[in-house]
Prior knowledge:
This protein starts with a strand and ends with a helix. The protein is of the alpha/beta class. It folds into two domains: 3-76 and 187-284, Rossmann fold (3-Layer(aba) Sandwich), CATH 3.40.50; 77-171, Rossmann fold. Strands 1-2-3 form a three-stranded parallel β-sheet. Strands 4-7-10 form a three-stranded antiparallel β-sheet. Helix 1 crosses helix 10, helix 7 (179-189) packs across helix 8 and helix 10 (255-268) runs antiparallel to helix 11 (278-285). The chain contains eleven helices and twelve strands. 39% of the residues lie in helices and 15% in strands. Glutamic acid is lined by residues 7-9, 41, 183, 197, 201.
Amino acid sequence: xxxxxxxxxxxxxxxxxxxxxxxxxxxxxxxxxxxxxxxxxxxxxxxxxxxxxxxxxxxxxxxxxxxxxxxxxxxxxxxxxxxxxxxxxxxxxxxxxxxxxxxxxxxxxxxxxxxxxxxxxxxxxxxxxxxxxxxxxxxxxxxxxxxxxxxxxxxxxxxxxxxxxxxxxxxxxxxxxxxxxxxxxxxxxxxxxxxxxxxxxxxxxxxxxxxxxxxxxxxxxxxxxxxxxxxxxxxxxxxxxxxxxxxxxxxxxxxxxxxxxxxxxxxxxxxxxxxxxxxxxxxxxx
Length: 286
Ligand code: GLU
């Protein structure tokens, strides 16, 4: 069965870009008579606003998207810890005490997510103390894994290139697991078959594919959809005050009409090359 998910982080309200992402995931599952999941990614306790989870549910209801909610990340920490221990036992995680500023100052190259870590702590040897992050020894990990591929429904078969990111942090100092470890484990635990998300996370999939291999997790198919952009070409983002769905909902706008508008823009972008037509999509709503 096709299973997709929408996995918002409750650190700001949802806007139209999220509606777009949720609708892509929902419709992709519905096309196959599958299931659409909601997973609250509240791993980052410091930034999470618990009250937003209910807003997210109300937003999906307003858009008339049927979903099944699975456990939020805050309830899954034990599974992240087990996986991190497994990787540690394989000898491919190492502790790191560097601050962001130190990493930025020492970096000689940029990766997709910012400065590439020059493996300072790996060369320095083990550091004692609880206040450490755990990084993946990318050289060892990729050597162990060998060449890997992954498939995106819209972009075809990709050769995994996790080395682009260098020694990524998988266990954080300030929050438990990193996004990469948590999301990969969750998708496997939730039985997600098609990971649908914005193309801004396309590169992250290289790391997720490697983690799946190392931990012996099932390998889904990915579906990276375009992200909505503002008139200046920048990604529509909650940080830049895109209108919140919740505000539009409270102002009495019709969520079904908003969803139909989103679907119309999706079909304009060839997004329904997975086979769903706008009229089918709208019929599913009624
Ligand atoms: N929690 C992530 C976000 O809100 C989404 C992660 C994903 O879809 O893999 O951006």
